[in-house]
Amino acid sequence: MPTLKSTLAVLCFVVVFSSFSFQEDWGFFAHRRINRLAVFTLPVELIPFYKRHIEYLTQEAIAPDKRRYVVPTEGIRHYIDLDAWGELPFGDLPRNLVATSRKYTEVLVWNESKDSLRLFGQQMVDDKEGNWQLIHPHLPYFFKTQKVFIDQEDYEDFFYENIYNALYDSNWEIDCKVVQDYFDRYDFDLPCHKAIAVDTFVKHGVLPYNLIRLQKSLTKAMEEKDRDRILRISADMGHYIGDAHVPLHTTSNYNGQLTNQLGIHAFWETRLPELFADDTYDFWVGQAKYIKNPEEHYWNIVLNSHSLVQEVLAIEKQLSEEFPKSQQDCFEERGESGLQLMPCREYATAYHKALKGQVEKQMRAAVHAVGSAWYTAWIDAGQPNFNRLRTFQETTISKQEKEAMEQAIHRGKILGRKH
Prior knowledge:
It is built from 18 helices and nine strands. The chain has helices spanning 4-17, 20-27, 29-38, 47-52, 54-59, 63-67, 97-104, 139-143, 152-162, 176-184, 207-223, 227-244, 264-280, 294-306, 309-322, 345-354, 358-380, 399-411, and strands at 105-110, 116-119, 124-126, 131-134, 148-151, 171-173, 194-199, 329-333, 339-343. It has a four-stranded antiparallel β-sheet with strand order 2-1-7-6. Strands 3-4-5 form a three-stranded antiparallel β-sheet. By secondary structure, it is an alpha+beta fold. It has two domains: 4-81 and 205-411, Orthogonal Bundle (P1 Nuclease); 97-204, no CATH class. It is globular. Helix 3 packs across helix 12 (227-244) and helix 13 crosses helix 16. Strand 8 and strand 9 (339-343) form a beta hairpin. Helix content is 49%, strand content 10%.
């Protein structure tokens, strides 16, 4: 027998994603609002360009969510499961994506006898003398020795040139000769019939790394005065920065599924802003500011959001015990989609009050952070003049691609996990 919570989770998914026309009216309220308001944080030299394209930036704020239906690696850009890496401040997790990938990417090698060996990644131990020592019980089968040492700096170069994959794939094939040639430097003859790289990190999300990458991409687009890329990346960054301010985008318990609170993600992220943002939130956040260190900046955002996870969950859990079940989930008219089951207004009001302005604070911070990201890219690009760039008419996505995406959305199957 399904519980009200599980029913809520299913119907929240239907509310947000089942119909393209319905999405336009309801499901992505916060993302659109954040992008739109971020325009007004910009200085007088930059705001005319962004204001001319404010409708595009508003509508395309939800483009990354649409891509989750057609791009298998899109989903991991929206979150990072910080709790998968231990306790705050997650000091062992490198802040640079290449370094993180190097630490958590292993190479699985098979010989002709189908014996397997895991190389690199977490199979390596620092010997404190500038070397990595490979640790694996199968080493003698492949190297005829119990101990294999490789130079750390040499491996960094080798990894970046021959193994690193910037496409967020979880595994990919590696040329055996590449690995064999590498060990030949150390006078080891490695038998290799097949080799694949296995990234054990990306499944837990790459949100802050993705933002750091996009910050550089936006700067480059501005340097080249590539209007289409400027607008597309700006809209995307607004979405991901918004996600970074949602506490539940930073935890493996992203929808309360581990604490019997299924549906809390849509409750916090969608229901509360829709009910209270227009009437009670103050979105005057001041002017955008230059971000001196984007890597530190984006990591601080997700770390701050993660520090709120326990509060988000604990408050709703307490309220669920105080409110009768019959007063937690209610049917409500939702435009063309008709009646939908969602948190009752009274229950949502109680949750909103108990959070003491948390949702408003996070939305305000997101608005300012989006404007600051755009402004920082413009400063780093040398403050180019965009006044002569022609007005944007259409997205760079072809008609066929749009149709394929809309069909995928109508089918309602997200590739990868929901958040």
